[in-house]
Amino acid sequence: MNVIMLLEKMGEEIGVRYLPSKIHEIIDYTSKMLDNGRIITLSDESGLLGVMYFSVTDDYEPFLKKGEFEFKSHDPEAKTIYVEKMISRKWNKEIRLEFEKEVMKRYPWVNQCIGHRRSKNGDRKVLNKRRLKYVSN
């Protein structure tokens, strides 16, 4: 899937909208992430369920502090997944497990996942250190 197709599907099937002033940054960022294999998409018969932009790293701080659509290289041999963006119309255990399964297929040595949820009071760290016991490789 190319960048434009992905962004169109995200808009049509998930409802994602971007500011016109940011569209060139978004296309450039998404293109680099796709080329680097750092986007996972989930679909079912009804269409696109979710999209995850992620990096593999042992030091997530630079990814947390970077600009929203700034591309940073990652360390594919690291043991931590940093979720940069998680886009989904709905969120439940089944969707989370599908994302985990896809991550574990690509990076079976990963042992934790870190992300941040944006809120009115600042970012809230979300840490998952368990060994993804519900996922079979």
Overview of this structure, please?
With 137 residues, this protein is an alpha+beta fold. 32% of the residues lie in helices and 27% in strands. It has helices spanning 3-14, 23-35, 61-65, 93-106, and strands at residues 39-44, 47-57, 80-88, 112-117, 124-128. A 5-stranded mixed sheet has the order 1-2-3-4-5. The protein is globular, with a radius of gyration of 15 Å. The two termini are 25 Å apart. Mean pLDDT is 86; it is low at 131-137.
State the gist of this model.
This protein is of the alpha+beta class. Helices cover 32% and strands 27% of the residues.
Write the layout of secondary structure elements.
Elements: H1 3-14, H2 23-35, E1 39-44, E2 47-57, H3 61-65, E3 80-88, H4 93-106, E4 112-117, E5 124-128
Shape: globular
Strand arrangement in the largest pleated sheet: 1-2-3-4-5
Distance between the termini: 25 Å
Order of helices and strands: HHEEHEHEE
Number of strands: 5
Please mark out the parts with pLDDT under 50 across 5 or more consecutive residues, or reply none: 131-137
What proportion of the residues form beta strands (DSSP E)?
A: 25-35%
Major sheet characteristics:
5 strands, mixed
What is the overall pLDDT average? 86
Pairing-aware structural class of the strands and helices?
Answer: alpha+beta
Give me some keywords for this one.
137 residues; alpha+beta; 5-stranded mixed β-sheet; 4 helices; disordered C terminus
